[in-house]
TrEMBL record:
Polar residues composition-biased segments: 33-58
Designated name of the protein: Lipoprotein with Yx(FWY)xxD motif
Keyword Signal: yes
Entry keyword annotation includes Signal: yes
InterPro entries recorded: Lipoprotein_repeat
Organism of provenance: Agromyces badenianii
UniProt keyword terms in alphabetical order: Signal
Length: 166
């Protein structure tokens, strides 16, 4: 019985995640103007440790995680170095941006180039090698990689900022 419930929850989670990857409706802007300048983000109530980047071992090897140990992802629909995120609306609900309250994210063990852009909600979104970073609502615990390969557009990153798979 527990297996049936867990399987059902996994299917629902995957369906919600894939829905977040679909094209936005006509009312939802897909892109938001952004800049590569570092500026103070509005207080969103997010914990400051979220914007920190570090590494952790996983079934995929050594990966990048945020300051809370949650896996970070890149999105193939983003454009590297474009200073804007392609994930808005329902996508941003399922794939929240990794943000920082300070101008410069804390980094430990990550060798790729870390930066920031202005996210779709005006917060300061962390980037790695020019790719905006996201967490996944379907990851329930530190080190989960449930978003890996979702929709064939979401990827876990190595400490050098290279996507794993895809």
């Amino acid at each position: 019985m527990k297996l049936r419930i867990a399987t059902g929850l996994a299917v629902v989670t995957l369906a919600v995640a894939l829905a977040g990857c679909s094209a936005p409706s006509a009312q939802e802007p897909m892109y938001s103007e952004g800049t590569s300048e570092t500026s103070e983000a509005p207080d969103t109530g997010a914990e400051s440790s979220q914007g920190a980047l570090t590494t952790a071992e996983s079934s995929l090897g050594e990966i990048v995680v945020d300051g809370e140990g949650m896996t970070v992802y890149m999105f193939d629909n983003d454009t590297k170095g474009a200073d804007e995120s392609a994930c808005a609306g329902e996508c941003a609900t399922n794939w929240p941006a990794v943000t920082t309250e300070s101008g410069v994210p804390e980094v430990e063990g990550v060798t790729g180039e870390v930066g920031t852009i202005t996210g779709v909600d005006g917060s300061t979104q962390v980037t790695l090698n020019g790719w905006p970073l996201y967490s996944f609502a379907g990851d329930g615990a530190s080190g989960d990689t449930n978003g890996q390969g979702v929709g064939d557009v979401w990827w876990v990153l190595t400490p050098a900022g290279e996507k794993i798979g895809g």
